[in-house]
Specification:
Blueprint: H1 2-33, H2 36-41, E1 55-58, E2 70-73, E3 89-95, H3 97-100, H4 110-118, E4 125-131, H5 137-151, E5 155-159, H6 162-170, H7 182-192, H8 211-223, H9 230-235, H10 237-250, H11 260-271, E6 273-275, H12 279-283, H13 285-305, E7 309-313, H14 325-328, E8 346-348, H15 350-371, E9 374-376, H16 378-381, H17 397-413
Parallel strand pairs: 3-4, 3-5, 5-7, 6-8, 7-9
Antiparallel strand pairs: 1-2
Helix pairs in contact: 4-17, 5-7, 5-13, 13-15
Length: 435
């Protein structure tokens, strides 16, 4: 009996020591691989686009037109770029992956190049890149709502449309009711920001200062619903697993260092059937465009409430009716009525994708003209060329330079002439908005 008790105590002790050892190993690993500044600068009740002080290097392999390695760095606010210069005219660039330009070096993205073109020693300009892959205007509403008070931005530039279009063609049957669904609303905030803030205190107990605790808390913030019971949250675990599984299967680990996911999705599109836009999709297009237009108005109202000027950009793409075989092989977008893991996928033809993208761009222009909102028809200026795009819509190094030049030239036409040290022009003045 004594021997059995001794063995039991020894077993429990061994297990406890093993578990503690594993925790220590994991904690040490996370501390060695995590940006130390990020753990020190997370402020409770503050919104972060990405983890602060990310320092990563990518080696793009599947993106022709991007050369060498690319550094991806975020500042103390989780925005790609330098820390905010409080003495400068502050511009915040909002959008999806065509704004964040993940696989371009920090110095090669169009927001950074725009800052270089606008910046003058006697009239400094700060441009922050608040883009994030996959975000649409529903997310942009939240971004301007929470980031403008934090950054004090004077001007917001928003490149949008393509992710709203993708949301539509993947969920066309429910596009009108989708924004009212509880699941959609819950996921908006979680996707819009790195980690939505929770009420907390700056003075934390020792265990809450562990990186392991912070990572576990991040997962909880993302997937644990405090309004549900523990049992209900456990029931939702398969949904969480499926979401993580889909991310892996989709190749949507968007920051894998070589961009392998592009190759995976291109091959899926190449092997799939290409179709014209189904009638059921077109029947719901007007509803989707109405929602898109409403979001543009909401974003503008929030910007004006925060005394920030806003300029919208139409979305350029490579899509056209007669894309060359080489251009076709660069594409991956356009799945209809499902996710990229759905079996027997069908994709829209490039001609159909162009028609839908044109519809979204025209809607943006129409709403801006009617409501007196500044816009730049970027799609009109950027040629559909493999020199400027490495896939459906993402810019090469040369493409980002072209985008920055177009925006800089048109901001000057709007009265935003930073070289003279003057920022003139009235928001929504028809004479300054590009037509």
């Amino acid at each position: 009996m004594k021997k059995q008790l001794k063995n039991l105590v020894l077993g429990v002790l061994t297990l406890t020591i093993s578990v503690l050892f594993c925790f220590i190993v994991v904690e040490v690993y996370l501390r060695l691989t995590s940006p130390p500044e990020a753990e020190k600068t997370i402020i409770p009740n503050r919104y972060y686009m990405n983890q602060p002080y990310i320092n990563r290097i990518f080696y793009p392999k599947f993106m022709p037109g991007i050369y060498g390695s690319s550094k991806f760095h975020t500042n103390r606010d989780g925005i790609r770029g330098t820390d905010i210069d409080e003495n400068a005219y502050k511009i915040l660039c909002v959008g999806g992956s065509t704004t964040i330009c993940e696989y371009l070096d920090n110095t090669e993205t169009w927001p950074h190049l725009l800052m270089q073109k606008l910046n003058r020693e006697d009239s400094p300009v700060w441009v922050g890149n608040a883009g994030k892959a996959g975000l649409n205007t529903w997310h942009h509403i939240l971004q301007v709502k929470y980031l403008l008070p934090q950054t004090g931005a004077d001007l917001v530039i928003i490149l949008c449309g393509i992710n709203d279009q993708e949301l539509f063609i993947r969920h066309f049957a429910e596009i009108e009711s989708l924004p009212d669904s509880t699941k959609f609303k819950q996921e908006l905030l979680n996707k819009a920001f790195y980690s939505p803030p929770r009420n907390s205190t700056i003075s934390l107990p020792w265990y809450k200062k562990l990186v392991l605790w912070r990572r576990a808390s991040f997962f909880r913030n993302k997937y644990y619903n405090p309004e549900l019971s523990l049992l209900e949250n456990l029931v939702n675990l398969p949904r969480v697993y499926n979401k993580l599984h889909d991310l892996i299967q989709d190749g949507f680990a968007r920051q894998d260092e070589i961009g392998k996911w592009y190759d995976i999705l291109r091959k899926k599109r190449q092997a799939a059937e290409k179709i014209d836009t189904p009638p059921k999709v077109m029947e719901n297009l007007d509803k989707a465009l109405q929602l898109y237009g409403n979001n543009i108005i909401k974003i503008t109202e929030i910007c004006r409430k925060n005394k920030a000027r806003v300029v919208f950009l139409t979305q350029p793409t490579l899509w056209r009716k007669n894309n060359s075989p080489e251009e076709e092989n660069r594409l991956w977008n356009g799945v209809v009525g499902g996710s990229y893991t759905t079996p027997n996928l069908k994709y829209l033809s490039t001609a159909s994708l162009e028609v839908l993208m044109n519809a979204y761009n025209k809607k943006l222009i129409s709403v801006c003209r009617q409501a007196g909102i500044d816009y730049i028809d970027l799609a009109k200026y950027i040629p559909k060329s493999l020199e400027l795009f490495y896939d459906d819509c993402h810019f090469t190094e040369k493409g980002a330079k072209a985008v920055a030049q177009v925006i800089a030239d048109n901001l000057k036409k709007m009265g935003l002439d930073f070289s003279s040290g003057k920022v003139e022009g009235k928001q929504g003045d028809p004479s300054t908005s590009h037509k």
